[in-house]
Amino acid sequence: MNTQKQTQLTKWILTYLPKKNDLNGTLVLEALAGDAGFRRYYRLNTTPSMIAVDSPPSKENNLAYAKISLALNSRGIRRPHLYAVDFTQGFFLLEDLGEQLLQPLLSSETVGNLYSQAELMLLSIQQSPLDHDVFPTYDQAILTQEFDLFATWFVKELLGISIDKQAKSMLNKLCNDLTTSALSQPQVIVHRDFHSRNLMFVEDEKLAVIDFQDAVIGPITYDLVSLLKDCYVRWPVELVELRALSYKQQLEDSGLVSVVDDETFMRWFDLMGLQRHIKVMGVFARLALRDGKAGYLQDIPLVVTYAVDVFKRYPEVAAFGQWFEDQIMPHLTSQNWYKERNEPSLSRLIEQDDSK
To answer: What is the Cα–Cα distance from 212 to 198, expressed in whole angstroms?
Structure first.
């Protein structure tokens, strides 16, 4: 942040700092690690501490953040309290929820309890009213635009592979098939990035959610697959399926879906996961190449592993799977940042617990 912007932000903070937050001497802005967007976060030396956000209006949809924050609060969803906002300058004052993300707390011993909490939060989010004034629709145009990130940023820009006419036709068909599956599902409020780095464990031993400004009305399995097939955490396939079907029962009990057979639900879930992970390959490549965030390259191997799992399960995506294996994997595995991911198993997790 340049000196002029820091001066503007500091002046704004001092103007709108809540009276209950005592300032400990001269205001200090401690820069924090950012997210995948253009927002910059600063912890303030107040009691209790607060978070100031510099969120460029030309890059981020700040109005959406504020509206969705209020909508989640009305459902009793724990999220950072919004104390002040300046839409013109792109400044926020938020509650400081601490630094404890869910991800480092996850283990074979804790996953059951922590994911149950996350699923209860997700169920409450999905029961929110479908307010089109707050949440845009996750429609075919957006799904297609996201899918196209894969060809542009992952295949062409990152790996330097050209896509011939036949491959382009195959990708178009896959995009249509995955979009049709997504739109055939019951539509609910979708956080759109519901995973272990966007869930926080706060001092009252409850979960809070962050990074929700891209929430939409969309497919009912989207957030569930984001959680259970987390791009940063890998669980055994058996555990993922067990939790997915258990959540399906909760959806049926709550009336969010009518009774649906397990095979249909898992097909929704897996194909939704494939759509998400194809998109994420493009997003991670773009973050590395355009935004200089090369660390995301280390997360691509797990995303690829999830996609390959689905290739092997569903004949309708086999053509894409074969093309990916033949054309993409040789280029991918030659990258110095690419490392194969081992498949975890329930038996291995049990053995690890027994050895403690």
So the answer is: 8
